[in-house]
Amino acid sequence: MMLRIGSVELDVPVAQAAMSGYSDYPMRRIARKCGAPYALNEVVLDQTVLLRGRKQKRILKTAQDDHPVGGQLMGSKADDFARAADAMVGAGYDVIDINFGCPVRKVIYRCRGGYLLGQPAAALEIVRRVQEAVAGRRPVTLKMRRGLDDSPESERKFFEILDGALALGVAAVTVHPRTVEQRYVGPAKWEFLRRVKQHVGSTIVLGSGDLFCAEDVVRMMEQTGVDGVTVARGCIGNPWIFRECRALLAGRPLPPPPTVAEQRDILAEHYGCAVEQYGESRGSKIMRRFGIKYAEYHPYAKDVKRAFVAVKCAADWRAVLDRWYDPGVNRPPFRRTLDPNYLVAAGATL
Q1: How many Å separate Cα 223 from the centre of its chain?
Q2: How many C-alpha atoms does 290 have within 13 Å on its Cβ side?
Q3: What's the pLDDT tens digit per position in 247-262?
Q4: 3-state percent breakdown (helix, strand, coil) of the chain, nearest 5
Q5: Confidence of residue 12 (pLDDT cuts 50, 70, 90)
Q6: Each residue's pLDDT tens digit, 279-314
Q7: Which residues lie below 8 Å from residue 149, measured CB to CB, with a gap of 6+?
Q8: CA dist 323 to 230, 308, 316, Å?
Q9: Is 182 helix (H, G, I), strand (E, B) or coil?
């Protein structure tokens, strides 16, 4: 099942979503190693891209093994959006993604992200200016939620922005079917994705929301008709979801879940890449939150999670790997159920 987003061709219709504080280069590298054909950089402010400094250099640096990669931008001013998009194209990003979906309160208060779903004229001016700045050099895509709230007025504005953006030449749209007001509370309304896909016809629609395992990905595509998906929270600490999606979408059975030894290899590589990018002190702190999520796949998940929570330095991080991920110990692999809060054994008894 292939997917085209403008000039970008993917061999499977599953991408790693942009996630603030998570989807940096080390995470994207591991996702690709486990089968993700496309990944987006963590959402960045347009003004951060424009201000010179160490952070700007890190954002604008693209690695040879990190393609195709999408750069997701967020802001409130069309001019800043346009200049930042041009800079990201110059830096080598393969897709420019506009964020109209972030539900974080401080983002909304600053008239960014999901706030713009209530301002169709301002939102479409941003899309127009970004398209002009990119000038066909890269596909431009859009990330949206289904509105500010559940009111008919919010839904009307959603479709006004959607139709206007498509008329301006946006190559694809990713829709998270929760409202901004909902944030992440309650189930995502997949039925809304079906309506969006029917509304836009052949235009590429990617679905997002409540995708915590490969079975969820297949169900979303079958139930809604979307062309592909972006996996967000479901791939934090679980990059193996991408190889599982590849198998199910190709009609093959699920591959075996990762053994403790396989988990250690991925954790060690992820940690090494983070230290290389950020330095040992900062890299260890960043990897602490990843370790907590990786722990969910360990046979002793609660104990390992507590161990990662207690990490304060690089030595602590390595000590957790040495104690809990000894490849010489034959422990059974675990797989997450459809409910992401629970684990079930998938191997021999302890």
Answers
A1: 21
A2: 32
A3: 999 999 999 999 999 9
A4: 50, 15, 40
A5: very high
A6: 998 998 899 999 999 999 999 999 999 999 999 888
A7: 179, 180, 181
A8: 34, 11, 10
A9: coil
Q: Is the dihedral of CA 303, 29, 1, 204 positive or negative?
A: positive
Residue partners of 315: CB distance under 8 A and separation at least 6: none
Distance of CA 55 to the CA centre of its chain: 20
Q: Of residues 102, 213, 245, 273, which has the active-site annotation?
A: 102
Helix (H, G, I), strand (E, B) or coil at 146: coil
What the block records as the tokens of 8 is: 């970008």
Rounded alpha-carbon distances, angstroms, from residue 339 to 188, 223, 260, 290: 14, 19, 22, 20
Contact 53, 38 (CB under 8 A): no
Beta-strand pair 228-231/334-336: unpaired
Distance CA 85, CA 162 (A): 20
Tens digits of residue pLDDT in 146-186? 999 999 999 999 999 999 999 999 999 999 999 999 998 88
Tell me whether residue 102 is one of the annotated catalytic residues: yes
Query: Rounded CA gap, 77 and 42, in Å?
Result: 20
- Reading the block at residue 124, the tokens are 């479409």
Contacts of residue 195, defined as CB under 8 A and 6 or more positions apart, other chains included, come to none
**Higher local confidence (pLDDT), 333 or 100:** 100
Structure tokens that stand for 138 in this block: 């890269």
Structure tokens that stand for 1 in this block: 């099942």
DSSP state of 348: S
d(CA 121, CA 114): 14
Q: Which two tokens stand for residue 212?
A: 């915590």
List the alpha helices (DSSP H) in the chain. 25-33, 46-50, 54-60, 78-91, 105-109, 120-134, 152-167, 190-200, 214-224, 241-249, 260-278, 280-294, 301-309, 314-324
β-strand 39-40 against 69-74: which pairing, if any?
A: parallel
Token code pair at residue 199: 């509304």
Three-state SS string over 120-133 comes to HHHHHHHHHHHHHH
Distance CA 216, CA 195 (A): 19
